[in-house]
Amino acid sequence: MPPLIAIENLHHSFADGWDALNGVTLRIDAGEYTALIGPNGSGKTTLAKHLNGLLKPTSGQVLVNGTDTREASVSALARLVGYCFQNPDHQIFCASVREELAFGPTALDLSPGEVTERVEAELAAFGLAGLRERPPAVLPPGLRRRVALASVLTTRPRLLILDEPGVGLDAREQADVFARIAAYNEAGNAVLLISHDMGAVSRYSRRCLLMAAGQLVADGPPNRILCDAGALADAGMQPPTMSRLSLATSDLGLPPLMLSPEEYGRALLRLREERS
Amino acid sequence: MDRIVLVENLNYSYPPLVPGDPVVDALQGISLTVRRGETLAVMGPSGAGKSTLCLALCAVVPHSTGGVFGGRVTICGQDTRTTTPAHLSACVGVVFQDPESQLFSATVEDEVAFGLESQGMLRDDMRQRVDWALGLVGMSDHRLRSPVVLSGGQKQRIAIAAAIATRPDLLILDEPTASLDPAGALEVVQALEGLRHETDCAQVVVTQDAELAAALADRVLLLDGGRVTHDLPAHEALRSPGLLTEHALFPPPLAVLNAYLQARSLPVDWRTVDEAVAGVRRLLGAEGTCRRS
Questions:
Q1: How confident is the model over A180-190, as pLDDT tens digits?
Q2: B244 and B144 assigned to the same domain
Q3: pLDDT digit string, tens, across residues B61-116
Q4: How close does chain A come to B77, measured CA to CA in Å?
Q5: Do B178 and B56 fall within a single domain?
Q6: Which long-range contacts (CB under 8 A, 24 or more apart) does A130-134 make?
């Protein structure tokens, strides 16, 4: 079986001369939960848009499930790769929640029975069943986000790309949305989470890619990348609060790379007890 | 006049979005004041009424939204029921969550000058004011660029520059950093801090980000279900992880660590990473063995 995503020395230059990607090589396998981090303008979105063929390489190659994206239509790639935009209003356009969720699978030529089955499954999973005939545009932001995500999941993509799925949601809504994403991942599907929210990255992903100036500059477990002060600084980013504390006290015998305050507190108390 | 914002028992319901639906109660019995030079963070779960409150402070509610309005909102001495948003814009600047929704000019300097031009300011004065506003947000080198090609963080800083160029008495910011990366968010926070030093403009900032509130706010107003549940000094609100979690907010990591240790009889109250580093060293008997954070 070919890897789900295989990118080889990918370059992309925009018409205005901006070199957004400068030689990215990357492989993503089925079932991974990968976070893509980096400052604004580092090429995260440009990279992601190559995975579903919205953008084609200026040079280099992107293979999705073994198929070169230059030889595949966006609609064919949509069977494998689903893209949920940062702003749900950029993708919501139907007159009802039900039609919104049905749009993708209908466009993929699934039978009406199959479409209905998927729509009902996602309505139930997202707690949207009571809203099926409502116009999505008038729903509050948290519900619009869920509709947008549900309408991508009804296409059952093997790779789900999420651009800042938590933005505009409160902590409870974020927990709901990320729980649904985790369940989709646990069912064997790959997730690519593009986010500035280091808390979400450390809580949910298992692999973290750091981009800077159109290149991948680090690739590893999230706690290692988020505590790599040097790589983050070179990328123009600041480590999150807990990794700064963890790094600055790592010489005292505390375990390194702790991003959770409770975990840090526990380790601190344990060490204090041992020493007294 | 010291009280820039005075809200007295404000009740507001939106008209139904879909004909036949009931009205939507958004704000119930809201009272608050914001004084000159003060920054108020407005926080709470989705649907709590935070954005509606912002719209009421700039008179868009009820003038452009209709609905049922009760109580009184007085901004810079003007009652919003009898003052239009256009009229109020002379003393109120607004920055929305998504800068794309408010940028429309061909160049950065035109964008920032728009409000000044509308006020009929003289050309030389206008140039100086644009310089000042762009300097405050660190965008002086981008005057002649098109806002369209800027990054999200740069766009938001232009939106702020445009809002402060008229030197408003009140600046309203609805989730100004929600769509920015941490570096961009930090630039916006620094711009807003600079603004507090440079002017005595009152600020109302809606945010879900407790660390942003800690950096900027004097007071925190917690809303839930359209009501004020707490109106507290910022440091008090932000060191109560339980209170924040109840309002569907992520507490700052250091507040969680403080609360964890306090619950186990260690009376710590670390506000910054540096304080925490020093505190941890003290607790482990390793004072003086300093390492930079």
A1: 999 999 999 99
A2: yes
A3: 999 999 999 999 999 999 999 999 999 998 999 998 778 777 888 999 999 999 99
A4: 33
A5: yes
A6: A131/A97, A132/A96, A132/A97, A132/A98, A133/A96, A133/A97, A133/A98, A134/A96, A134/A97, A134/B18
Q: How far is CA A243 from the centre of its chain?
A: 22
Smallest Cβ–Cβ distance between B249 and the set A170, A196, A269 belongs to A170
From the list B254, B280, B289, the residue facing A268 with the nearest CB is: B280
Structure tokens at B28: 């119930």
Measured at the CA of B268, the angle between CA B262 and CA B272, to 5 degrees, comes to 125
Could you tell me if B137 and B59 lie in one domain?
A: yes
The total number of structural domains in chain B stands at: 2
Quote the CA–CA distance of A106 and B100 in Å, as a whole number: 32
pLDDT at position B153 is: 79
Q: Is the pLDDT of residue B168 over 80?
A: yes
Q: Could you tell me if B191 and B287 lie in one domain? A: no
Burial class (CB in 10 A: 0-12, 13-18, 19+), B35: middle
Instruction: Look up residue A75 and give its two tokens.
Output: 């609609």
Same domain? For B132 and B268 the reply is no
Residue of A nearest to B284 (CA): A272
**pTM for this prediction:** 0.86
Q: In the A/B pair of chains, how many CB contacts fall below 8 A?
A: 120
Q: Residue B127's Cα: distance from chain center in Å?
A: 27
Residues B215 and B275 in one domain: no
- Reported as type and span, the H/E element at residue A67 is strand A67-68
- For residue B14, the tally of other CB atoms under 10 A from its CB is 17
Q: Which domain holds residue B191?
A: 3-251
Which residues have CB under 8 Å from A75's CB, separation 6+? A107, A108
